[in-house]
Amino acid sequence: MTSTSRRLVLAARPTGMVDASVVEVQEVPIPEPEPGQAVVRVRYLSIDPTIRGWMDDRPGYLPPIELGAVVRGGGIGEVVASASDRYPVGASVFGMLGWQDHAVVDEGEAGAQVLPEGIEPTAALSVFGVTGMTAYFGLLDVGRPQEGDTVVVSGAAGATGSIVGQIARIKGAGLVVGIAGGPEKCAWLVDELGFDAAIDYKAEDVRGRLAELCPDGIDVFFDNVGGEILEAALDNLALRARIALCGAISIYNDRDAAPGLPNTFELINTRSRMEGFLVLDYLDRFLEAQLEMFGWVAEGKVTHREHVVEGLENAVDALNLLFTGQNTGKVIVAVSSA
Amino acid sequence: MTSTSRRLVLAARPTGMVDASVVEVQEVPIPEPEPGQAVVRVRYLSIDPTIRGWMDDRPGYLPPIELGAVVRGGGIGEVVASASDRYPVGASVFGMLGWQDHAVVDEGEAGAQVLPEGIEPTAALSVFGVTGMTAYFGLLDVGRPQEGDTVVVSGAAGATGSIVGQIARIKGAGLVVGIAGGPEKCAWLVDELGFDAAIDYKAEDVRGRLAELCPDGIDVFFDNVGGEILEAALDNLALRARIALCGAISIYNDRDAAPGLPNTFELINTRSRMEGFLVLDYLDRFLEAQLEMFGWVAEGKVTHREHVVEGLENAVDALNLLFTGQNTGKVIVAVSSA
């Protein structure tokens, strides 16, 4: 254990894919807690597409990460020094810890929570964390599948998409179709997660395959991808379809060059609803959803997979996995084995 | 009164704006009613943007008008011959009568209704008809304005848009803004219909003006126009905004060349909902809405204007008024003075 702590600060705003020049590794003294604070040794970081969005200097649902500031991101760690009754030494804590070895959490802020006993930290960041909650509330609260509905998910082999399809199955969807990149991911969806079918967008015509696989149209489309995949789905809607807009990973690396969506008129033809959501709006309902998810995982109805990248210094590469599609399941950085 | 009847049939699919070559005027014998039928002398035709859409050979919420078929459209007329108890001679009837002097209505079909006494036929086609119902249900059922909301309407000087703004006012909107073309229309909205402000999209930067006029963002956007106006609205949404997609008049004449909507990601940033609707889905609730609308018109709370074009032979020109923006209020064709 050294006496210094690494942190990755945003050194430059990226254009396109992120590379090493975007962050600067700084060595700083391990912080001391002020009254009401605790210092957390960060163990795992949640790597999410939205982090790429926060690196741009454009308004969003949260302010951009400032240049020179630690890269924002969720994580889990262990309290190593405390001046707070809420965060005792040894407790596991999750929250917006940031891309660094040590984070200061403050009991005056809502940001960090003590993790209950018995939950694997990596699962806490994926299926039981923001990722799983995104799947749960986006599908059930925004998509609102009815018994027998055709549910289609893009980014289906990703952390959120893979959970969406399984919840749809549990909730009585008639047909669950995933859109993913490559035969391995597609096989995983069908063979292990119980999707009825998968479309390999890298090899197949998504619009045409959706028409074949969903002859009655799509009732619920859960979109993680945007762009041409969303366009193809809009051309295959059932009447009164619901499109839950979760993310648009196809455009995050070059927002200005994103092609427009030419067929929103289909929303009129089919009387459909397209609605964006943010899981942070559901914080007060996380507990109910987590309890249900614990049950499903325990019963084997929901399978989750984590893709762990070792080393804080590899966080940028881990983020890029999401955009090159090289991950299956939730990308997590194991900050250090120290 | 002659013994023949004119009808306008679709002779060719239009490209771009409709011109005379798209329809053929045919003279046919006045039809005789079969049992259960009546023959209606058509007096007024409702001219709606959606008719242009039906002329294209593309799937929509109704099938395309077939080549050689009478142009589809709503209208009002008088029963001149009847073999049906439902439609007595002399009764006023409204429904999908088509672009012709005489229409056959059949009591076995839901299409035509007897007009109650005391309603002006032109008002029956506008504020009390499909147009007014579109405004009513689109705003209240899809847009769902809350007390104090900022409500913005595009195509605001049109038949539907002008009613939308007035209903928003009645229902307690905090701010009502219309987008229309030209200073006369804008003045009409503010001076006569009680809109708080109007944006002249032909002379002003819509995105910038929306930002100025709606500093807290748009809560409800009722869209008749699509394209760049919808794009500008998406960049000015409040949190949890609702976009009621009614039509997209900016694209009907050239659907394939319509620019895509580049900023649907704003729906995620603001957790907003964009939803298409069709007034035909609300037929079973028309009566409740018409009763409320009768009251508002009687109390002077809703002003409506009709733009009457004389002569069935001018129906094509009347349709184009909608796309050149030369109408204020509802475009109606007075089929003949005979």
Quick description:
Two copies of one chain form a homodimer. Chain A has 338 residues and is α/β, with parallel strands linked by helices.
How far apart are the first and last residues' alpha carbons of chain A, in Å?
A: 7 Å
Order of helical and strand elements of chain A = EEEHEEEEHHEHEHEHEHEHEHEHE
| Percent helix range of chain A | 25-40%
Low-pLDDT parts of chain A are none
Instruction: Give the percentage of residues in beta strands of chain A.
Output: 25-35%
Overall spatial form of chain A? globular
User: Which CATH architecture of the largest domain in chain A would you pick?
Assistant: Alpha-Beta Complex
CATH topology name of the largest domain in chain A: Quinone Oxidoreductase, Chain A, domain 1
How many domains of chain A? The number is 2
Provide mean pLDDT of chain A, rounded.
94
Biggest interface between protein chains, with counts per chain?
A: A-B, 32 and 32 residues
Oligomerization:
homodimer
Structure report:
Two copies of one chain form a homodimer. Chain A folds into two domains: 4-126 and 305-334, Medium-chain alcohol dehydrogenases, catalytic domain (Quinone Oxidoreductase, Chain A, domain 1); 130-280, Rossmann fold (3-Layer(aba) Sandwich). Helix content of chain A is 26%, strand content 26%. Chain A is α/β, with parallel strands linked by helices and 338 residues long. In chain A, α3 packs across α4, α3 (130-143) crosses α9 and α6 (206-213) runs parallel beside α7 (227-234). Chain A has helices at 49-54, 121-125, 130-143, 159-170, 183-191, 206-213, 227-234, 266-269, 286-298, 315-324, and strands spanning 4-10, 23-29, 37-46, 75-82, 92-95, 102-106, 113-114, 150-154, 175-180, 197-200, 218-223, 237-245, 273-276, 306-310, 330-334. The mean pLDDT of chain A is 94. The longest helix of chain A is centred in the middle third of the chain and has 14 residues, at 130-143. In chain A, strands 3, 4, 5, 6, 7, 14 and 15 form a seven-stranded mixed beta sheet that branches. In chain A, strands 10-9-8-11-12-13 form a six-stranded parallel beta sheet, sandwiched between helices. Chain A is globular, with a radius of gyration of 20 Å. Chain A starts with a strand and ends with a strand. Chain A is built from ten helices and 15 strands. β13 of chain A pairs antiparallel with β13 (273-276) of chain B, so a sheet runs across the interface.
